[in-house]
Design goal:
alpha/beta, Rossmann fold, ABC transporter ATPase like fold, Helicase, Ruva Protein, domain 3, 5 domains, six-stranded mixed beta sheet, 28 helices, ATP-binding, nuclease activity, nucleotide-binding
Length: about 775
């Protein structure tokens, strides 16, 4: 054998990232390796945090120092030896950028190709590709330019114009905002009396001082007495440089300032109090000028075979693929071929029901991941490492086979495919399995099994024991105590759907991806009517956030410490007054070394405890605040449950966290170190405390191991038995089999779906055997 052919393994020795405990594995190249284990066992730490991270870091180091200055600086993972790495292409579950201007078309380059196509073939011809872009505004100008010719300065008049495709009314957003002025100010008060009711606009803050000292407004006159000129200055005045209290500042009317500071962000990315203000004060309506297409009149007038670019982006991708296939124009043949391939990839991967104008921020985690996969299908690259994070998320059992075929195709081209996965259907196709565990958090981080699927089945690991688990159909079903009536639902692809969702039971809403499940439940059940909705949106949090801050647990703990010691609660926050002055409450000191990785060293002052030394002298129940944050949920539950430290408010939150299986989490563990499944359950625990009689859960099994699904089903049962109504949008057959009632949507996705095709008990669904869900549920319970 040639020596170059001997490097056929990726060797990892002594990996200690997050909870990994000196893990050593050898992964075969050009094979499909699946990493299994309970949620939080260290799968992502090994695959993403160690192997993929080091591969990316080493590739970045091949670029010049100048280029590296523009790239994210990646730290070397905590590992002794990493050998045999190849270029890693990461396809993770991170939601796509939620910028309001980002759509499925712009994120996959399909829009860029369509714009070129219309600029070449569209009639009438209106300009270059940017004339069809809703992100480019049309501008024109003229003026004198001075240049040197032959040693003398010459002035010439020049004109320029750019034809863009942006709708001038909505500025390419597709919707316009209308302000409820009563929510911006109290017109019976003057500015000095605090008329402005916008969050952050206090009179002693900078905004208030700018408005009062601008000279455009009388600070002592009630707003209802303003002249038209003053009211225009308050609400609409364009940016103007002024001097207030000796400082040069920019004055701007309330409405343009709010549009720039608040409305430019995605709603989900706003702080809760800002989001509440925006929901209260601003209504969004479809732009009447472009009818939501975001495009100018010129861009909407140019057609190819009777279709405009707005029509092309609005129709379902599977239909658009057929239309592109019907175009035969030799002058743009390479472009048509690439566009056809991209659109066919959407269909092949099970996303043919989307449209190109769908905002990227509205895609679920599974849809976003599959959209990212599209650019890798048909790629000519070989001998690279593809890394997938639960690619079956959001997929109906019918679609999982399709995804498996794609993973095998990538492997068969000579690539190494690494997959973190919980679904037995995908684990079954692996060439090699690495099982981590045995538990989660500090109880995990070791390799429990390495080998093939047959060996895993017979192994004594948690995954091996549960691999062939099958939930059986219930013989007794709870009876509904009422119904949520949905009538004439037409959101997205729904077709005048009438359905009664039973209350007082566990109701599962099923159907292939894109059949209309989320549209029916999230889009048709009125929010706020006692409904607690837990969707798939990710938990946002920095390295300063932890389970205690996210769940609100830290508030009662701080108050208990403050009361016991007679001091302020703010002292017991590492993000506030109690922070260590050296590291500002981070616990580590970061040293930026330019193009090199940033060095993080444990703070010498507080020894990583994050708090000021004087704060750590205050004790409650015999512990200081840093010791409490270092406890696991289970330990803290016992600590706050009785004795001197009894705190009922804290105990209640800890009890909910333990119920969802997070008893091993440390209270002060940064949110950035939690796995997808742990974040999903943390979110569930937080919302379980909300007041409401109806719980809507969107795929709660996301990121959960087979062993954890059993615990989730027990939790759902307890919720229903306590008098709640639980509606679950789910693809997992165990949840379907356990439900009291099933509403199945379909029969297909997109315009082939949107209808209720079955209502009844799981047993009746299996007996009917007509729908795709029925067939897969029948196979599951009989297996």
């Amino acid at each position: 054998m040639h020596i170059a052919d001997s490097h056929d393994l990726i060797r990892v020795h002594g990996a200690r990232v997050n909870n990994l405990q000196d893990v050593s594995v050898e992964i075969p190249k050009r094979r499909l390796t699946v990493f299994t284990g309970v949620s939080g066992s260290g799968k992502s730490s090994l695959v993403f945090g160690t192997i993929a991270s080091e591969s990316q870091r080493m590739i970045n180091e091949t670029y010049s120092a100048f280029l590296q200055g523009f790239m994210p600086t990646l730290a070397r993972p905590d590992v002794d030896v990493l050998d045999g790495l190849t270029t890693a292409i990461i396809v993770d579950q991170e939601r796509m950028g939620a910028d309001p201007r980002s759509t499925v078309g712009t994120a996959t380059d399909a829009n860029a190709m369509l714009r070129i196509l219309f600029s070449k073939l569209g009639q009438p011809h209106i300009g270059s590709p940017q004339a069809f872009s809703f992100n480019v505004a049309s501008i024109s100008g003229a003026g004198a330019v001075t240049m040197e010719r032959g040693g003398t300065k010459v002035k010439e008049r020049r004109e320029f114009s750019i034809t863009g495709g942006m709708c001038p009314r909505c500025e390419g957003r597709g919707s316009i905002s209308d302000f409820d002025l009563t929510q911006l100010y109290d017109d019976s008060k003057s500015l000095r009396e605090g008329a402005l009711t916008i969050p952050g606009y206090t009179m002693d803050g900078w905004y208030g001082r700018i408005y009062m000292g601008s000279g455009f407004l009388d600070p002592d006159k009630p707003i209802r007495s303003y002249t038209k000129k003053e009211l225009h200055a308050l609400l609409h005045k364009e940016a103007t440089r002024i001097k207030v209290e000796g400082v040069n500042v920019t004055y701007e009317g309330l409405i343009p300032r709010i549009q720039k500071s608040m409305l430019s962000k995605d709603r989900e990315g706003m702080q809760p109090h800002i989001r509440a203000f925006v929901d209260r004060a601003i209504t969004f309506a479809t732009c009447p000028e472009c009818d939501g297409t975001r495009l100018s009149e010129g861009a909407r007038s140019s057609k190819i075979a009777g279709i405009t670019i707005a029509d092309a982006c609005r129709i379902q991708i599977s239909d658009l693929a057929e239309w592109v296939s019907g175009l035969d124009e030799p002058s743009v043949k390479p472009l048509l071929g690439k566009l056809r391939h991209t659109l066919d990839s959407f269909v092949e991967i099970g996303l043919g029901y989307l449209s190109l104008d769908r905002p990227a921020g509205t895609l679920s985690g599974g849809e976003a991941q599959r959209t990212k996969m599209i650019r890798h299908l048909g790629s000519s690259l070989t001998d690279v490492t593809y890394v997938f994070d639960e690619p079956t998320i959001g997929l109906h059992p019918h679609d999982i086979q399709r995804m498996n075929d794609l993973l095998l195709r990538l492997r068969d081209k000579g690539n190494t495919v690494l997959v973190v996965e919980h679904k037995p259907e995908t684990i079954a196709i692996a060439d090699h399995v690495v099982d981590l565990g045995p538990g989660a958090g500090t109880d995990g981080g070791t390799v429990c099994f390495e080998g093939d699927v047959t060996g895993l089945r017979t192994s004594d690991t948690v995954t091996g024991k549960h691999f062939d688990d099958r939930a059986s159909l219930k013989s007794e079903f709870r009876q509904a105590t009422g119904a949520l009536e949905i009538r004439g639902a037409t959101a997205n692809n729904l077709r005048e759907v009438d359905v009664d969702v039973p209350l007082g039971v566990l109701c599962a809403v099923t159907g292939v991806a894109g059949s209309g499940k989320s549209s029916l439940i999230h889009g048709s059940i009125p929010a706020g009517a006692g409904v607690v909705s837990i969707d798939q949106s990710g938990i946002r949090g920095s390295r300063r956030s932890n389970p205690a801050t996210y769940t609100g647990l830290l508030d009662p703990i701080r108050k208990a410490f403050a009361k016991a010691n007679g001091v302020k609660p703010a002292l017991f926050s590492a993000n506030s007054e109690g922070a260590c002055p050296t590291c500002n409450g981070a616990g580590v000191v970061y040293t930026d070394l330019g193009i090199m990785e940033t060095v993080a060293t444990t703070c010498e002052e507080c020894e990583g405890k994050r708090f000021n030394a004087s704060v750590l002298e205050y004790r409650f129940g015999g512990r200081d605040i840093s010791e409490v944050l270092d406890m696991s949920v289970a330990q803290a539950e016992e600590f706050f449950g009785g004795g001197d430290a009894r705190t009922p408010a804290a105990h209640k939150i800890l009890e909910r966290m333990d119920q969802v299986g997070l008893g091993y989490l440390r209270l002060g563990q940064p949110l950035t170190t939690l796995s997808g499944g742990e974040r999903q359950r943390l979110k569930l625990a937080t919302h379980m405390g909300d007041k409401g009689g109806v719980y809507v859960l969107d795929e709660p099994t996301t990121g959960l191991h087979l062993a954890d699904v059993e615990q989730l089903l027990g939790l759902l049962d307890r919720l229903v038995d306590s008098g709640k109504s639980v509606i679950v949008i789910e693809h997992h057959q165990a949840v379907m089999a356990h439900a009291d009632w099933i509403i199945d949507l379909g029969p297909g996705a997109g315009h082939d779906g949107g209808k209720v095709i079955f209502e009844g008990t799981p047993a009746d669904l299996v007996a009917s055997g007509k729908t795709l869900t029925a067939q897969h549920l029948a196979d599951y319970v009989r297996a």
